[in-house]
Specification:
This is Malate dehydrogenase. The protein is of the alpha/beta class. It is built from nine helices and eight strands. It has a six-stranded mixed sheet. The protein has a two-stranded antiparallel ribbon with strand order 1-2. The chain is elongated.
Amino acid sequence: MMNHLNFLMNSLIQDHNKNLWRLDTLKMKKNEAINKLEILKDRAEYLQDMPRGSQDFKKWHRDTEVAIEHVFGTDTRHSQDFKKIQYSLNVFFSGMPDSKFQESYQRGINTAITVIDSFINEIEEYWTEEEPAIQTVELEAVDKVKLIITRFHQVSRQLRARHSDRPTIEIEDEYDVQDLFHALLKIYFDDVRAEEYTPSYAGAASRVDFLLKQEQLVIEIKKTRKGLGAKEIGEQLIIDSQRYQAHPDCGQLICFVYDPEGRVANPRGIENDLTKEINGVSVSVYITPIQ
């Protein structure tokens, strides 16, 4: 079972890493980038007199694509500009002389030289002398919780696929959902407080499912069942928000509604209706899985 949990947690961490936003994709010092591109430009000039389709051309083309990604980053305009270059005819007919194909190839090489030269000029004009640092911005706490919610159903299904029918956790009621969700929260958060008591409301104290104190987040877990559908969930959220108003660490309430049987007919509509400020508390509602 631990192997399954490790696999699932690694999957969530990989999804999290994909959501890191790169603010500065530059990876090379200015002079290093210029020298790299100058060498590739010189190699392109040498290829002008080579026959089209040579192994030297194929290696140069791939080396240049890789270098552009290292200098400017992946999925940038620079990569797109280079990949758009054509080295062969778009339209040709039977009997067309081979010289026409060679001319098209040479035009492509000349265009590539011009584009690389433009990259070099850009670096010379706009880059500073200092080595640009790579910076990343972590996902906000709310986004981390939302990621866990989004993948929760896949995790619960994977846990059922044990080797040799070994025992596993079955998600049968709200407590099972809470137990698994608590474990997944530990991927991102060190301080997860379960069943935190709120100050007295209407003469009685109540408990929140999870409190992320440092992040000022309260997480409420609900699992649909007979007698607990969209209408009842909405009513409960109004009561919950009134209770959590009094909690000193509740800056936002996130409600995760686990609906594996598809009891909520219009989950996106319910999310939109209930995601709002209720009784002075910002409430976000997420219903999964979408049937």
